[in-house]
Specification:
The protein has a 5-stranded parallel beta sheet, sandwiched between helices. It is globular, with a radius of gyration of 15 Å. It is of the alpha/beta class. The protein contains 8 helices and 5 strands, in the order H-H-E-H-E-H-E-H-E-H-E-H-H. The longest helix has 13 residues. It has a single domain, classed as Rossmann fold. The two termini are 19 Å apart.
């Protein structure tokens, strides 16, 4: 789990002011096409910021502060959820475990993982397989929006990701 200093740096970098973070790094045109994103982030300030930015870009957002809430939101949502944007390291259930759980009922869902740890560290420790959509914190809003759009537009299914993640789970 990132230490308090790293977490504060992430929050500071992304939230210098919400207005600056949204306007300075905002893509020129709206990237969203009305897709629904399940956002899972255990840092309240980041959850609010990411949610606001995604909504501004034309996405519908189901925002959850932990895995349990994400599962409840997913179960209660009767329409498609196109993508899950989730933190990797969270209390209770981590992001990869949550993704496999959500995929049981929503096999078509795509995922972008995010973490204060590097992708290399997460791969080396067996927390996340290689070649999975990933964002290292801190990142700009423009990078976030671009990664989500790329992942949504990719023609590849995520079933290979689910299988690779399951092989890593205890």
């Amino acid at each position: 789990m990132p230490n308090t200093i790293n977490r504060n740096i992430v929050i500071h970098e992304l939230k210098k002011t919400e207005t600056e973070a949204v306007s300075v790094n905002k893509p020129e045109k709206s990237a969203g096409g009305g897709e629904t994103i399940l956002l899972v982030e255990d840092t309240v300030e980041l959850l609010k910021l990411f949610s606001k930015c995604l909504k501004t870009q034309g996405y519908r957002v189901l925002a959850a502060g932990d895995a349990k809430e994400a599962i409840s939101l997913s179960d209660a949502h009767n329409s498609p959820i196109h993508l899950m944007l989730t933190d990797v390291i969270m209390p209770g259930m981590n992001g990869p475990q949550l993704f496999t759980r959500i995929c049981e009922r929503r096999p078509e869902i795509k995922v972008v993982f995010m973490s204060g740890f590097s992708n290399g560290e997460l791969t080396k420790t067996g927390t996340l397989p290689a070649n999975i959509p990933y964002l290292g914190k801190p990142f700009s809003i423009a990078v976030l929006i671009r990664k989500i759009r790329e992942t949504l537009d990719a023609q590849t299914e995520m079933s290979h990701a689910v299988e690779r993640i399951r092989r890593l789970l205890p």
